[in-house]
């Protein structure tokens, strides 16, 4: 073999080996998700987190979103069991396991989703973490959606008219509100709401205004009731499998956590806030009747009356968590209400 041909062959082998090694070194983090791909949680939050991770790990770890892996309440177990590497879900879908996070869901928080998300993350790190409610998972972020509102197939002029109506509820504090309003609760994951309202399986849903767009509820909603500050928020977490995290190099592990935590929590809250603005615009364009309740209006007075004692009920429910829940709740509200970007 001629010398120059030998050099070319050796170089080609070396290049192939380098490319092969590079491909082998690349880790794909499979993240299960469940709302539509166009939803801000997927199109903004997970997409941005993936870009942050890839940049922070210099391309060694890449995020890949996978859909259709079942009801969101099962995702905690799927990640814990290693069926996927990471996911996100609603704490309220697993009643009894997650109690402390309900603090951010209580009515009258009066803060944006971004502010509430940052507050929840900070209070979790300081107060809730020792209770280990996310046992078997590595928590990457905690966040809330924007204020939950009332979407109805037939309008109301008083909350008393909600009695007996079939309302899709997603667990957590919104279920407690449903009980106090004496609605007939119907359980189902959020992506099923459009079909359920279209077929009148339910008369309405408690959910943020953003779903007027992302779940196309503008097509099946006659009235959107907007309470001052909303009725509640819903708490979520983004979480990873501990074995997946442990198998990463220390450098990549630190890199991923550096672009998670409060930074990722704030991003998620902000994306849901922006989604609510767009959802409200879509509802208006579609001709949905919007009842903007003002502080002191009859509906607001009804709401304030029916929510009395909910703080005390919450504190009683979490009494077994060995956490100063009252101090944590106070701190959470102070952080959320004073939050500035």
Largest sheet: 6 strands, mixed
Give the low-pLDDT segments: 1-24
The N- and C-terminal alpha carbons lie at a distance of: 67 Å
| Number of DSSP helical runs | 13
Trace the largest sheet across and list its strands.
Answer: 7-6-8-5-9-11
Rg, nearest Å:
23 Å
Tally of strands = 11
Beta fraction: 15-25%
Determine the structural class based on helices, strands and strand pairing: alpha/beta
Question: On the 0-100 scale, what is the average pLDDT?
Answer: 93
Order of helices and strands: HEHEHEHEEEHEHEHEEHHHEHHH
Morphology call? globular
The helix content is: 40-55%
Summed up, what is this model?
This protein is an alpha/beta fold. It has 13 helices and 11 strands. It is globular and about 60 Å long.
How does the SSE layout of this entry go?
Blueprint lengths: L2 H23 L1 E6 L7 H17 L4 E6 L8 H6 L5 E5 L22 H16 L9 E7 L3 E5 L13 E4 L3 H9 L2 E4 L5 H6 L5 E5 L2 H4 L8 E4 L8 E6 L1 H6 L2 H9 L2 H25 L3 E4 L5 H9 L3 H8 L7 H14 L3
Parallel strand pairs: 1-2, 1-3, 6-7, 6-8, 9-11
Antiparallel strand pairs: 3-10, 4-10, 5-8, 5-9
